[in-house]
Structures are given as C-alpha cells and as structure tokens.
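Exam prep: given the inputs below (a chain plus iron/sulfur cluster), describe the expected output before reading on.
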Amino acid sequence: MAMSNAENALAGIRVVVETSASGRSQSWTRALEAAAVWLRPRLPWVHAVMFVLFLVLLVGPFLLPDPEQASWLAGLANQVIWGLWFPLVLLSVLISGRSWCGLVCPMGAASQWMNAIGRKRPVPGWLRWEGTPIVSFVLVTVLGQTVGVRDYPGALLEVFGGTLVAALLIGFLYGRGRDKRAWCRHACPIGLLLGVLSRLGMAELVPKRPRAGGDAYTERGMCPTMIDINRKTESRHCIMCMRCVHPERGGGLALRLRPPGEEVAQIQHHHPAASELWFLLLGTGVALGGFLWLALPQYQWLRQTIGAWAIDQGLYWIGQPGPAWLMSEHPEAREVFVWLDFFMIVGWMLGVMLALTLALSLLNALGAALAGRLGASGDLRGRFVALGYQFAPMAMVSLLLGLGGGLFSALPAHWAMDIKLSLLAAALLWGLTLARRILAGFSLQGLPAAVALVPGIIGSMAVGWIWWPALAVA
Ligand code: SF4
Ligand code: SF4
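Solution:
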C-alpha cells in the first residue's frame, strides 16, 4: 500500500532526527576517544596517586600516634570505601563500563606493574577456571562479615591488604606479553561483579574490523585482560583501559554508546556464560545472607539452640574466641565473636546463598522450559543461561544495598528507606523488561512470552521480599 503524504513527511522527519542523533552520538564518541588518547600516557600518574591514597586510608590509622587522629582517619576511610567508592563504582559501570578498572583502580594497576617485572608464566588452568572469581568473591564477602570489615580498620586492612597482596603475587607470576592483568581477568572478586554489570552499561568498545568466530582468549595480544580484540562481542572482560583505541587509524576498537541494558537484552549475540549466571545468583544470596543474620530473630534462636546442644555434648571450645584474623575481637566495641558465632555466620551466609541459588535457578529453569513448550527457539540450556541475566539488575541492587550501606547511612532514615524501596522496584521492572526482550530474541512474544515470564517475576519479587527485614540494617 502506498504511503500517504503525512506518513511520508513523518518518515522523513524520523530519518532526519535519527541521522542527527547518530551524528551527535558520533561526535561525542570521537571527543571521548580523543580524551582517552590524551589521558593514556598520564595514567601512570593517576594510578600512582590512587595507590598512595589507598595506602594512606588502609595503613594510615595504624601509623598515627595520636589515637584521636587515628580514629578520625579510620572513620574517613570507612566512609570513603563503603559510602563513596563501592556505590559510585557500581553506578559508574552503568555509564562508562569498567572504566574504574582501566583508568583508576590502584590494585589493578599494581598487579600490572608487577607483571611488567615478573615471571610472565602462562596463566595456569586453575586460574583460568571461570569459577575462580566466584570462589574469591564468596570467600572475601564471608570473611568480611566475620571480621567486621565494615566496622573496624584492622579488618579493612586485612581484607583489602590481603587482596592487594594476592593481586601483586598473581601479577608477578602470571601473564605473558606486555603488562597483562591475569588478576583482573581471572581472580579479582570485584572484577567479575563489574564485568557482569558492564553488560548493562551504556558504553562499549567494538572492533572497527570485526573478525568472525566469536570471543576468544589470547595472551599474545596487546589487551591486558587477554581479549582477542577483533573478535570481541562482549563487555565483561574489557576494563576500558583504552589501549586499543586509536581514532586516527582504521583498526583497533571504537567507542560506541548504546541504550542501558542493550547487551543483556540481546545476550545470545554477546557470548552468554553460565558462570555469570551462577555468580548473579550466588552473589545475591551471599549478600542477603550477610544481612539476614543481623536482622532475623530466627538466627538468634538457631544460635542458642546449636550452642546449647554443643555444650551438652561437651564441646566447650565453641564458646572460646578464635584468632582475630578470622573473627571479630573488639571488646572495646563490645563485640567478641567465639567459634560458635564464626560457624553460625559462615553457615548461615552459605546456607542462604545456596537456598536462594537453588530456588532462583529452579524458577529460571521453569521459565526456560515453559518458553520452549510455548514455541521459543533454541535449546533449554541456552534459554536457561540467557534468561538468567534477567536477575542482573536485582543482583546489582542487592550488592549496592548490602555492601554499599555507608551511602545510605549518611542519609536521613526515611529518605534512605524510600530510596532502597525505589531501587528494588526499579530493579524488578528492569529485570522484567530485559526478560521480555531476551525471550523476543528466542522468537517468543505476546501472551506465550508473558506466561514464560511468570517464574522469573516470582523469583525477583521473592528477592525483594526477602530483603525486606534486612533493609533497616543494610
Ligand atoms: S578487576 Fe579488580 S583489581 Fe582489577 S582493576 Fe578491576 S577492581 Fe581493580
Ligand atoms: S579491549 Fe581494549 S580497552 Fe578493553 S581491556 Fe582490552 S585493550 Fe583495554
């Protein structure tokens, strides 16, 4: 059917608007690329300043002779790390991908410096295993709770200092070629988190001369995180170091701005990974577990019951304090954990993590199976992994509430609660929108897609509901 004059005019206006919008976007990306090229030789200075600041915040409170000044600096360090650094880094991923990692992070830079002078051995299989950063994240989160990383400067030093030592060691030993970051690609507990969330972000780097074959790993190229840059289709390992960006050349990568969530909505074309799905579920569960033990009376009941049973069995050591590097011992703050507390907190966090992961993965499997029954393309495993990314916004908000609590504690209580509830509602809606678009990628739309979405909606609402008692604590 021929278009009417009005339709022709509208189509013309749309083309003009789209062309000018894409022109504006291109001039923006060009300007940003030029800024990156200008910044690149200056980055070592940025890293050096950040490294000194990092050390001052971590070690400073123990070097100051005046207890009042030491306590002031410890409070500042706590506020900077939990109130500013963690929430802002999480939010920055939505705008500029893992730019924190590539441009600012002192730990990643230090690992890279060590690689430059180190042994440069090939990255071993155990380190390349996709579960390594998940284990690292869970270990650090659980240890953080038992030593009180959000409350005590000694615990902050232990957790961040220990992580820094591991980053230096892995950087020194592994990664062939020039300035590699095996730590950032394979082991950093924050790196995996930022990697998954960078898929939701508005910035990506795309090859100017893409090669077919999908994403590939190479220790021989110029990329510090071992990406074969011309085959890059996913954001998660790219730390936005801009080493591969050369606006004046025909090759390398170019900056592209995109709507938030686009990569997740089209995840089938961006190398979905089952390890990321497990991380989303386990990470959400462990963050929740870390707060529910503080908030639920059932935890106290369980602790009493198990403690009484252990004493009846003659296990008196369970009431003794353990080593201070493993559990909080702060009599001045009226907090001294004994072995019972240690085992209870660890068991509780891991229990909540596993229970939530089991429940969400069953619901996700049900959604993927229903989608198949109702006509979606692809196999069950592919749909299961892809659909699991619907939980990414909820995981992000869970970790923001859980580990970025310092941001909220600086706000008036009623504001903080309203913001937390709004974040949970926004995560639920965003996850639902993403799930709908993911199913559309499997050729399922309309009523059948709505039916297949139900298990995922129940899962996301359940996470929000479980957060409820912990919101006042987080
Ligand atoms: S992966 Fe970890 S250590 Fe590496 S730059 Fe990112 S936050 Fe820093
Ligand atoms: S793809 Fe480019 S910007 Fe991304 S980490 Fe590798 S070299 Fe850096």
